[in-house]
Design goal:
It is a single chain. This protein is of the alpha/beta class and 389 residues long. It contains 15 helices and 15 strands. It has a seven-stranded mixed beta sheet with strand order 2-8-7-6-5-3-4, sandwiched between helices. α2 packs across α3. The structure holds pyridoxal-5'-phosphate. The site of pyridoxal-5'-phosphate (PLP) has 13 residues, from α6. The site of pyridoxal-5'-phosphate has 13 residues, from α6.
C-alpha cells in the first residue's frame, strides 16, 4: 500500500501545484533531485572524472534497479540519453533492406513514425500501418493477418502520447515470436505506471525515458535489448565504450546491451534515474499501477458528468493518461487557463499525431496525466475547474 502522505511529502511541489502533466514530465521525488545536485557539486569540487570515480557505485546502481523493475538481466539494459535515441538505435541495428516490411500502428509515437518514413524514403523499406479499432485498441489479430514473407519487424507503442488506451503488447509479442519477427516496444508512457514483466512480454527491444512516469531527471532514458536478439545485431554506430579496438584495423563489439551505449553521458542524470528507479521499486509496480488506475477511473467517471466535455479514451484498458476536448474552447487555451489556476496539464497536438488526432478528430486535445502521488481531491478540483471554465 502506498502512503499518500509520504509520497506527497517526498514531492515538495504537491503543496502548491496540481501536477497532471506526468506524461510530459513528472515531478521527481526530492531524493532524486538531491542525488543529481549532490553529484553536480561533487563535479564542481573534484572535477568530472574524479567525481565519477567517487560515485561509481551510485552510477552503476541504475542497471540492477531497472533490471528489477523490468524483470530482465542487467546485461540487457543500456543507458541512453532519450527514448527516441534508444528506439532509433534498435531500429537501425536491424539493417532493413529495400522491400523489407515493418508493421506498426496508427498510434505510433511521432518521432518513431518519422524514423520509419525516413527508412521508407531512404532505403525502400515498406511500412504497413494497422489502424486502431473504434475502441482505440489495435487488434493483435489484424497484426497477425498483415504478416507476409517480407515482414521483418513489428513496432508498437504501448500507451500513446495522445491517447491513454493500453495496447496488448503481450499478445503481439507472442505473434511476433511465432513468426520470427523482431518486436520493438515503445514503453515511454507506460514504464513507471504499468507493471512491465519482460519474462512475460516477449519483445526484442523496449525503450523508455527517465522524466515521465519513472520520475527521473530530464535527458535520461534506456533501451532494453533482449540478450539473444542482441548477439546477432550490430548497432548503427560504435565507440570506445561499446566496442574494443582489438588491433589497428580490427574491433570487437561488446556483448550485451552495452553495445548500444555511448561513453559520454549525463552522469548526474544517470545517478538520479537510478534513485528514481529505486524509489519506484520500493513502492512496488503493482501498488503504483493499481493507484494510478483508480485515479484515472475516477477522473474518467467524473468527466462524464460535465456538459460539453468529451473524453477520447474509448477502451476499458485505461492508463493514467486521460485526453479530452471541451466544446468551444481550444485545448491550448484550456491548458493556459488551468495553469494560471495552479493546475499543470498538456496539449497533445494533432500535428504530432497525423494518423490519429489529425485524421480522426482534427483537433488538438487536452491531456491530463495522473500519477500515484496525485490525490482524489486534486481530481475533483480539476473537474470542478474544467466545469467552470
Ligand atoms: C510514446 C512516446 N514515445 C517516445 C517519446 C519520446 O521520448 P524522449 O523524449 O525521451 O525521446 C515520447 C515522449 O513524449 C512518447 O510519448
Amino acid at each position: 500500500m502506498i502512503s499518500l502522505a509520504q509520497v506527497r511529502a517526498d514531492t515538495p511541489a504537491c503543496e502548491h501545484l496540481i501536477h497532471f502533466n506526468n506524461a510530459g514530465c513528472a515531478l521527481s521525488p526530492a531524493a532524486v533531485t538531491t542525488a543529481v545536485t549532490n553529484h553536480l557539486r561533487l563535479e564542481q569540487e573534484l572535477g568530472g572524472y574524479e567525481a565519477a570515480n567517487e560515485a561509481e557505485r551510485n552510477i552503476a546502481a541504475f542497471y540492477p534497479e531497472l533490471a528489477k523493475l523490468l524483470h530482465c538481466d542487467e546485461s540487457e539494459i543500456a543507458f541512453m540519453e532519450s527514448a527516441t535515441r534508444a528506439w532509433q538505435s534498435a531500429l537501425l541495428s536491424l539493417d532493413l533492406q529495400p522491400g523489407d516490411q515493418v508493421l506498426t500502428a496508427d498510434n505510433e509515437y511521432a518521432s518513431n513514425y518519422l524514423s520509419l518514413l525516413y527508412l521508407s524514403r531512404r532505403h525502400g523499406v515498406e511500412l504497413i500501418t494497422i489502424p486502431s479499432g473504434d475502441d482505440g485498441l489495435i487488434d493483435p489479430q489484424r497484426i497477425a493477418d498483415s504478416i507476409t514473407a517480407k515482414t521483418r519487424a513489428v513496432a508498437l507503442t504501448h500507451v500513446a502520447s495522445q491517447r491513454g488506451d493500453v495496447q496488448a503488447i503481450t499478445e503481439v509479442g507472442e505473434i511476433a515470436l511465432e513468426n520470427g519477427l523482431v518486436f520493438l516496444v515503445d514503453a515511454c508512457q507506460s514504464v513507471g505506471q504499468i507493471e512491465l514483466n519482460l519474462k512475460q512480454i516477449k519483445c526484442d527491444f523496449l525503450c523508455g525515458t527517465g522524466r515521465k512516469y519513472l520520475r527521473g531527471p530530464r535527458g535520461t532514458g534506456f533501451l532494453y535489448a533482449n540478450r539473444e536478439t542482441t548477439q546477432s545485431l550490430v548497432p548503427p554506430a560504435i565507440d570506445l565504450h561499446s566496442a574494443n579496438w582489438a588491433s589497428p584495423s580490427e574491433f570487437e563489439i561488446k556483448a550485451g546491451a552495452i553495445r548500444f551505449e555511448s561513453w559520454e553521458r549525463n552522469v548526474a542524470g544517470m545517478i538520479g534515474l537510478g534513485k528514481a528507479l529505486k524509489y519506484a521499486n520500493s513502492l512496488g509496480m503493482e501498488s503504483i499501477e493499481a493507484r494510478v488506475r483508480l485515479l484515472a477511473e475516477s477522473l474518467n467517471r467524473q468527466l462524464q458528468s460535465i456538459d460539453g466535455v468529451e473524453v477520447h479514451e474509448r477502451s476499458a484498458n485505461l492508463s493514467g493518461i486521460v485526453t479530452l476536448s471541451r466544446v468551444n474552447t481550444e485545448a491550448g487555451t484550456l491548458r493556459e487557463n488551468l495553469q494560471t489556476l495552479g493546475v499543470n496539464t498538456s496539449v497533445a497536438k494533432k500535428q504530432n499525431a497525423r494518423l490519429d488526432l489529425d485524421s480522426v478528430l482534427d483537433r488538438d486535445v487536452l491531456r491530463a496525466s495522473l500519477h500515484y502521488y496525485n490525490s482524489e481531491e486534486e481530481v475533483t478540483r480539476f473537474v470542478d475547474l474544467l466545469a467552470a471554465s
